């Protein structure tokens, strides 16, 4: 099934239900959202034919309308990040071959700079800010002049979106998805959370990410639920929106969850309506789940996915986390997940070389929701896709019951004294200290040991390096060779992407230098 057909069904069944509510008080019903996205689709077809449209916007109705308009055209929408550099924006737009650009007030300066490349045949500005550019049209004027009826022949294809990897070590790579591929993720979300038309979801993570698009927006639109768009994350504002709109579902990466918990602990907003909280994108500790259960809701879902394959490779329900703490769950429906012997990047893993329960290996995955590759990085594609499988580059193990536990990224591992050290293991231990907010572990070059374990620890308490090292020495689950030999304590948050991924190289440069 295509997402365009799924949304048409929702608009028929729930035309008067609120589809989108903004944090500044605007509301759009499904009938209104359907008409506005159709008008945008017809307007774009008039201007760029079958050309793709790039969108540069905060979480807003404009972003949602552009997504739906792309589906109605059957032409992918380029979901650009507003947090990357101008150079990266140009590369992202060029990789996806965008011919139209839609942008909002907050991103007008970046959009005007992007237009200077001369690659766009149409530019549409949504907002009230004056924009001095002869080729830029007003979004509302464009919609007002466009036809509310789709012409024959639309959708002309099955494209849905060009999504981008997090780009922690390089320019984000472009990944093309069709509507059926993302349909699997949307249905997965509906099934796992039990979403229906009575639900109200708060959208706090940037709309352009895979997890927001396919694990949050599309599932709720498919089910006929309402989505409250939080333009930019602020924990107090988010909790105010939960209380004001009787929000039932929240998507938040671990760093956001910690911030929500901290504010809720002090302010005590009415959050009794919350029925499901989805998290993932970074390590989810037992302590975070316990704190979230106490402050917000005990219905915390831990998930595992990636841009190239969708947000739902595995799903850990609240009950699974109680019996199997730390798990990201079992493989989701329509997916096959294997943990196999790790191979170098120059060789493909053997899908049949699965490791035994409790042993570590590399996660590979396949399923109908998987993309077919990168549209701009053939070398990276060759290293990631093989024989219908996707290499995740994640180290993991399964227990006797088949539950998956992510250990770390293959690329993060370093060797100290001949032993493999996975930073995430050490970080989990350090972050279990009640005064530690977050931690990053990495290897420092050492003549004797090859590398020594080093840590940067974030806290707002009066915690010393010696106390951190003593805590690690006394922790039963941490072998001696994994203990930090050097430690820096700071109150500065660790650098992360907006999906919570730790930017290790940037952190090492900050504290160690070149």
Secondary structure: elements and pairs:
Blueprint: H1 3-13, E1 18-22, E2 27-29, H2 30-48, E3 52-56, H3 61-73, E4 77-79, H4 86-95, E5 98-104, H5 108-115, E6 122-126, E7 136-138, H6 139-145, E8 159-164, E9 174-178, H7 179-193, E10 200-203, H8 210-223, E11 226-229, H9 235-245, E12 249-251, H10 254-267, E13 276-279, H11 286-295, E14 300-306, E15 310-316, H12 318-323, E16 330-331, E17 336-340, E18 361-366, H13 378-384, E19 385-386, E20 389-398, E21 404-409, E22 414-416, E23 419-421, H14 423-431, E24 438-446, E25 450-458, H15 465-473, E26 486-490, H16 504-511
Parallel strand pairs: 1-11, 3-4, 3-5, 4-8, 5-6, 6-7, 10-11, 10-12, 12-13, 13-14, 25-26
Antiparallel strand pairs: 1-2, 8-9, 14-15, 15-16, 17-18, 18-20, 19-20, 20-21, 22-23, 24-25
Helix pairs in contact: 1-8, 2-3, 2-6, 7-8, 9-10, 10-11
Structure, described:
- The protein is α/β, with parallel strands linked by helices and 514 residues long.
- The chain has 3 domains: 3-17 and 27-180, Rossmann fold (3-Layer(aba) Sandwich); 299-409, Luciferase, Domain 3 (Luciferase, domain 3); 413-511, GMP Synthetase, Chain A, domain 3 (2-Layer Sandwich).
- Helix content is 33%, strand content 25%.
- It has 16 helices and 26 strands.
- The strands form 5 sheets. Strands 2-1-11-10-12-13-14-15-16 form a 9-stranded mixed beta sheet, sandwiched between helices. The protein has a 7-stranded mixed beta sheet with strand order 7-6-5-3-4-8-9, with helices on both faces.
- Helix 1 (3-13) packs across helix 8 (210-223) and helix 10 packs parallel to helix 11 (286-295).
- The longest helix has 19 residues, at 30-48.
């Amino acid at each position: 099934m295509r997402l365009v057909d799924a949304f048409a069904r929702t608009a028929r069944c729930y035309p008067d239900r609120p589809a989108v509510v903004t944090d500044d008080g605007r509301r759009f019903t499904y009938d209104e959202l359907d008409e506005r996205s159709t008008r945008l689709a017809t307007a774009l077809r008039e201007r760029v034919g079958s050309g793709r449209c790039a969108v540069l916007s905060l979480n807003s109705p404009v972003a949602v309308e552009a997504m739906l308009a792309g589906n109605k055209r059957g032409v992918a929408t380029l979901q650009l990040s507003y947090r990357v550099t101008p150079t990266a924006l140009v590369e992202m737009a060029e990789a996806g071959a965008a011919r139209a650009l839609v942008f909002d007030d907050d991103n007008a300066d970046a959009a005007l700079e992007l237009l200077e490349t001369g690659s766009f045949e149409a530019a549409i500005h949504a907002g009230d800010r004056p924009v001095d550019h002869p080729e830029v049209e007003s979004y509302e004027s464009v919609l007002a002049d466009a036809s509310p009826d789709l012409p024959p022949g639309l959708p002309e294809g099955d494209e849905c979106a060009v999504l981008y990897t997090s780009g922690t070590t390089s320019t984000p790579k472009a990944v093309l998805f069709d509507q059926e591929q993302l349909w699997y993720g949307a249905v997965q979300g509906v099934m796992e959370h039990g979403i229906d038309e009575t639900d109200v979801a708060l959208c706090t993570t940037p709309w352009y990410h895979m997890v927001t698009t396919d694990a949050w927006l599309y599932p709720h639109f498919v089910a006929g639920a309402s989505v409250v768009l939080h333009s930019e994350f602020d924990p107090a504002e988010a909790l105010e929106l939960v209380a004001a709109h009787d929000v039932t579902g929240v998507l938040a990466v671990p760093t956001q969850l910690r911030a929500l918990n901290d504010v809720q602990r002090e302010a005590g907003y009415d959050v009794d309506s919350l029925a499901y909280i989805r998290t993932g994108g970074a390590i989810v500790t037992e302590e975070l789940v316990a704190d979230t259960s106490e402050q917000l809701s005990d219905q915390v879902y831990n998930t595992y996915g990636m841009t190239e394959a969708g947000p739902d490779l595995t799903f850990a329900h609240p009950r699974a986390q109680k019996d199997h703490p730390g798990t990201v769950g079992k493989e989701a429906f329509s997916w096959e997940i294997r943990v196999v012997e790790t191979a170098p990047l120059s060789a493909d893993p053997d899908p049949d070389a699965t490791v035994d329960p409790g042993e570590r290996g590399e996660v590979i995955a396949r399923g109908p929701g998987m993309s077919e590759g990168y549209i701009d990085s053939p070398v990276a594609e060759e290293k990631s896709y093989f024989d219908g499988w996707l290499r995740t580059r994640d180290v993991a193990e399964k227990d006797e019951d088949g539950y998956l536990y992510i250990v770390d990224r293959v690329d993060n591992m370093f060797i100290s004294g001949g032993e493999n050290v996975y930073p995430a293991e050490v970080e989990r231990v350090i972050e279990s200290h009640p005064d530690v907010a977050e931690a990053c572990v990495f290897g420092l070059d050492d003549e004797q040991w090859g590398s020594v374990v080093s840590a940067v620890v974030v806290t707002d308490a009066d915690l010393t390096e010696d106390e951190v090292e003593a805590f690690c020495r006394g922790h039963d689950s941490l072998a001696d060779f994994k203990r930090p030999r050097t430690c820096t304590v700071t109150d500065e948050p660790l650098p992360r992407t907006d999906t919570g991924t730790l930017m290790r190289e940037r952190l090492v440069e900050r504290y160690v230098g070149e």
